[in-house]
Amino acid sequence: MKIAIIGAGSIGLLFAGYLGKKHAVTIIPRREEQCAQLEKEGISIVMEGNKCFKTIVKSNIGYESLNEQDLVIVAVKQYHLPNIKPILVDLKHTIPLLFLQNGMGHIEILKDLNSKTILVGTVEHGALKVNDYTVKHNGIGQTNIAMYKGESSIIDSLVSYNIASFPFCQQYNWEKMLVKKLMINAIINPLTAVLKIKNGQLITNSFYLSLLKEYFLELFSVFSFMDKQLVFEEILKICRNTSENKSSMLNDILHNRKTEIDAILGYILERAKSQKIQLPITKILFQMVKGMEGGSGE
After folding, report:
1. What's the mean pLDDT in 193-200?
2. Which pLDDT belongs to residue 208?
3. Among 77, 136, 181, 290, which one carries the catalytic annotation?
4. What CA–CA distance (Å, rounded) separates 296 from 140?
5. Cα Rg for the chain, rounded, in angstroms?
6. CB-CB neighbours of 288 under 10 Å
């Protein structure tokens, strides 16, 4: 397949590095400097034990090649989506799109697109961008993909791409899939960012664990159609499996970058408002993270 990946952050690089071993991948970064580096160096994936492999990919700044692709993967952060929405609207409607954003704010944008086939995904891998062409794969998980609308043949192609360190798994209810990831992100990201701790400390410190449990019950009041025990156990499992990792939101705070707090907690607060549900812990965490990233909270 010919695959274009929009976005060259940690997730974009990770996907390009693995998918480029089998498919013809073009990665589209925002900066010309990164584009030149990717063209020159390719993508280096550093795995556990410092094992490393390199993948040669194409890279360009423009979007002219998108209409020649068999699949376009959108791996930019949620807050960059409005900037590329006009590009996606103008794509040939026959080209499938796969969105890999945290949160659920992007669902509103999907409604305005003309593409016949749209997929949404959640990424369970741990990935840390080292430089413009190197990403550390510091937690092997899987990519869950579900059909938002259209035909499923493209899912079959991805699922059949069988590599132990980078599996794809088809899910059949896109909303439950996204809500599960949303709840996980809503718990781990803001708490670790505010407390400035690694993921594992949320469950090894009894006071933090007590806070996590109370906060989880508050969030569950908004998503009561989910399996409470299943989601809670998944949160604990991820904290254990990524115990030495810093969450993406904590990394954003430490590097003075904008976070995805609006796409995660902002979305949940709006949803709770429509259901007339009060979320005091969520609101406090939202305001704290907004203040830490230099936002006014307005």
Report:
1. 97
2. 98
3. 181
4. 36
5. 19
6. 15
Same domain, 131 and 256: no
Q: Is 21 a catalytic residue?
A: no
- On whether both 165 and 64 belong to a single domain, the answer is yes
C-alpha–C-alpha distance, residues 149 and 116, integer Å? 7
The CATH number of the domain holding residue 214 is 1.10.1040.10
Mean pLDDT, the chain, whole residue set: 94
- 32 or 297: which leads in pLDDT: 32
Beta-carbon contacts of residue 76 (< 8 Å; ≥ 6 apart): 6, 7, 9, 12, 84, 101
Helix axis angle, 206-220 to 174-195, nearest 10°: 140
3-state SS of 125-161 is CEEEEEECCEEEEEECCCEEEEEEECCCHHHHHHHCC
- 288: tokens are 């704290």
Give the mean model confidence (pLDDT) for residues 156-161: 86
Token pair, residue 2, equals 């010919």
The pLDDT of residue 294 is 67
Claim to verify: residue 167 and residue 181 sit in the same structural domain: no
State which residues form the domain around 129: 2-172
Residue 64 CB neighbours (<10 A): 8
Q: What is the mean pLDDT of residues 198-225?
A: 98
- Asked if residue 297 belongs to a domain, the reply is no
